[in-house]
Amino acid sequence: MYRLWCLQMMDYSYFARIAKGEHTKGEFYEPRRGWIYDRNGKPLATSIVVDALIASPKDIQIQKTEAAKKKKSPKKKLDVNLSRDLAQLLGKSQDEIFAALTRDTTSAWLPLALELNENQSLKVDVLRKKYRLINELRKEKYSKRVYPKGDEACHILGPVGIGSMDSNLGGWGTHRPLGGLESVYQETVSGSYGKISSTKDGAGRDLTPIDDDLLMTLSGNQIYLTIDENIQRVAEEELAATVDYFGAKSGYAVVMDPKTGEILAMANFPKFNLAEYRKVPRDQWREVSANRAVEYAFEPGSTFKVFPAAAALDMGKVKVTDTFDGYHGKIVFAGRVLRDSHPYGMLTFPQIIEVSSNIGIYQVAQRLNTSTLYDYIKAFGFGKPTGIELPGESSGVVQPLSAWNTLVASRVSFGQSISVNAIQMVSAISVIANGGVLMKPHIVKAVSDERGHIRKQYEPEPVRRVIREDTAQTMREIMEGVVVRGTGKTAAITNCRVAGKTGTAQICEEGGRGYKSGKYLASFIGFLPVENPRLVVGVFIAEPSKNGHFGGTVSAPTFKRIAQSALSQLKIHPRIPDPVQMAELKNTPVAPLDGMPEEDFASELVPVGFDEAASPQTALTQTLNNNTTIIKMPDLKGLSKRVALVRLAGKGVVVNWKGSGIVVDQSPKPGMNINPGDECFIILGSHYKPTILPKQDVAAFQSKP
């Protein structure tokens, strides 16, 4: 009775504390990492809870020392015995495990296996009982990342490593994000660690279940991206095929909604397996893991020409009818030779963009003062990070205005002496596509908790108006000409109006001094449908080494395939507009316009062999031995009615026309002989709204010589 009284009364607090420690266990629970979905709810990164096997070399050494003092043999060789048993359990060599257990005996956290299967987990329990181990060998649960789509969007998501022991948390600490969204949104998706107390029986089994609601409050938030998984997959596949076919070093592509700034796809090649990123050799990691679309800055080359063109048009310094001398492909300016890839004569303002003339765009930029051109380039978003939710974004380089001399300004006009990243380029082209407003690009659409309650919604964010709406409309039509008649014909899509710009930029040497010989960045950036742009797609292929290197050859076809798939996925079905209403047939002789040189509006490009000493009229006429002059019918296609009439002025012909817009067909055909008094027929329409002639007029038109 006395002894019972002592236990119950005098020593109650002591034994109650011991009992509580044995029957109540507080465990640290690592939260389940939040899932990442595409815009349609398709999982891109998920998490499962698995058991990892953790050893504590520090506690093993303590047990060995204690066993040696007490001369207890079972634990005197604990590290040797454990190494033998664990080698059989894990399928590793005993020497390897022994070396790991004895390498640092001050460590209390050493992962031996990151994922135990059910059989291995049971055998670990047997080992612990066999050697009566507590902290020396234990299982810890952790949230493992799983990627249902494999290596898709690997550069966007970024890999997740395993963190080291954190004594304040009592477990794995935190997953270590190694890049991508996982890094930027670490606090959002990682969740909160918690210590949960539960009652155990004598064998250590739970008697009170852990509240699921409590675990959910610890879990990380879910992230919904703007990415469309189907568009992303196609972009990656097409990019890989293009890099392979052209023997390129790398490539990247971006698909964006110009009206909202949402990134629908961002593809990079080469890529890596997120689940097995450790297999990438260390010396290749940077090359494989870099998100080039965000991190790399490059000279854009000819794709940049649309921005000084838009600036000059917005300021009223040029009109679409203005013409510029192509100087047959070569001009000396500021002590440097400026060349075009082909020799051109007189070029209209739209033709400068269509044929991508360096000499032409330099003359356009000259109509702007340097500070105005600089301000427009900054307004388009260059020289500053866009702020997209991805790490490592390059700001590009726009030299300070104080460094802009006439040579720098001329080079910037055609995409040299300036560097940009792909996101900046796609965002800037979106200004033209959406009517003149710079939108902030973003890749995260929403964040929700474990139960699906939206915590944050990301709305479209306009940054500033850059150009007027009418300027944007005109530039869209000019860029459409690049695809219809110019360097980007391979980007054309049947039954859909496409606009864009090609680029073939030299690649700078490391350190920015000079260019790599024979190394180019082939690019194409475009949007569609032109009448209501819903997609902007940029394709960039670095250092193609076979089958061509021009943007129109390498990147434009890839743009086409990605854009076609995106149109289908988003259920965008461009409707061919109704035919233009027919105008009354007119029969009006054309008189020359005073003070308007005929060849100012020449549509053909003058070849190198053109005799500069000859008058423009000799290019269209042929004088025979009998002094009879036969006039050659000029090519009028693509010209406005007014310009076409000017071209025919002074020929003595009678012009009939139908429709409105630009010339889409003519009779006689270009190059045919015409005589004064002959009738000429022109059909007016547009590239996307052709004039439809009644049957009787078709017969009359076709009967003409």
Note the beta-strand portion: 15-25%
CATH superfamily heading of the largest domain: DD-peptidase/beta-lactamase superfamily
Q: What proportion of the residues is helical, as a percent range?
A: 25-40%
Unreliable stretches: 164-173, 212-216, 577-628, 687-695
Main sheet: strands, sense, barrel: 7 strands, mixed
Could you characterize the architecture of this molecule?
- There is one protein chain.
- Helices cover 32% and strands 22% of the residues.
- The chain folds into three domains: 25-223, Penicillin-binding protein 2a (Domain 2), CATH 3.90.1310.10; 229-569, Beta-lactamase (3-Layer(aba) Sandwich); 586-703, 2-Layer Sandwich (Trypsin Inhibitor V, Chain A).
- Strands 2, 3, 4, 5, 9, 17 and 18 form a seven-stranded mixed sheet that branches.
- It has 705 residues and is α+β, with helices and mostly antiparallel strands.
- Strand 13 (330-333) and strand 14 form a beta hairpin.
- Residues 164-173, 212-216, 577-628 and 687-695 have low confidence and may be disordered.
- The termini are far apart.
- Helix 19 (422-434) crosses helix 20.
- The protein has 24 helices and 29 strands.
